[in-house]
Amino acid sequence: MEILMPALVLGALGLLFGAGLAVASKKFAVEVNPAAEQIRESLPGANCGGCGFAGCDAYAAAVAEGRAPVNGCPVGGSKVAQIISQVMGVEVEETERMVARVACQGTFDKAKKKYLYEGLAECNAAALVSGGDKACKYGCLGLGSCVKACPFDAIHIGEGGIAQVDEEKCVACGNCVAACPKDIIQLIPASKLTMVACRAIEKGRAVRENCVIGCIACGKCEKNCKFDAIHIENNLPVIDYAKCTSCMVCREVCPTHAISANLEKRRQARIDADKCIGCTICKRNCAFGAIEGEVKQKHVVIPSECKGCGVCVSKCPKKAIELV
């Protein structure tokens, strides 16, 4: 009996505590939104924070509650957005793919140094020492804080000491943007081939003393832009990407090459003679005079004049023009 009693007491306590836990689990249960679970399953699980939330779980809950857009995951892109939109029963708006780009070209051979930095190999630490070792206080320090912040291995320090983005890997999570103490990394539409690769807001002479490839605010880019897409503000050109056609003329006229553009990617218009009806709409809308032809005649593109802006493509009523 002495052995049996403790066993009975422990058994009774076990039943009591078990019943208590069962009641507590029912009373204090947190209901999970089924939609949130479905959304979470569709997410890539990167937990990068690019959506603006702490992680994938938080984003899924926010979408299910209507506090976040269905296309807010930069890693999943349009594919995941489509799945989430089906879960939520809404239509998803197409968004432009963004990529990170570095607004500095001040490599070792182009930008002066003001002292030899021998401290912690971290940009934020170096920036605390008189703004860093570069004479240009707006330049990339090249110590890789952005590299450490990128969970996708999409950014590295090049041989010239400047951060370089692998746009194929970049998902525009924004971690590198937040990590840069110089605020020189920007998220830009991937389809746009032009950017102002300088952040120095000093006057031209001061800029040239520190970096041979810095912007001197000469205004040639603004004067030569056919689409009113670039203006000088606070000694720096600012591109309105809603107007920019990636014609790259600003890059061609920039005397210091502070505006970067991949001229090798410039395309040219090509007119399908079988579809062209000679309406002259393309000719009248070409800002560069790169199309010739008379009314009711087949029009042709002048290759040497075409900048690949694509305006003619969007204006042609017969869809007879494409960029190649």
From TrEMBL:
Gene name per UniProt: rnfB
Species lineage: Bacteria, Bacillati, Bacillota, Clostridia, Christensenellales
Annotated region described as Hydrophobic, given as residue ranges: 1-25
Annotated ranges, domain 4Fe-4S ferredoxin-type: 125-160, 161-190, 204-234, 235-264, 267-296, 297-324
One of the record's GO cellular component terms: plasma membrane
Protein name (record): Ion-translocating oxidoreductase complex subunit B
Superkingdom per UniProt: Bacteria
Listed transmembrane segments: none
Gene Ontology biological process: electron transport chain
Pfam families reported in the protein's UniProt record: Fer4 (PF00037), Fer4_21 (PF14697), Fer4_7 (PF12838), FeS (PF04060)
Coiled-coil parts of chain: none
Cofactor note (record): Binds 3 [4Fe-4S] clusters.
Function description: Part of a membrane-bound complex that couples electron transfer with translocation of ions across the membrane.
Keyword DNA-binding in annotation: no
Keyword Ribosomal protein (UniProt): no
Record's subcellular location: Cell membrane
Cofactor list: [4Fe-4S] cluster
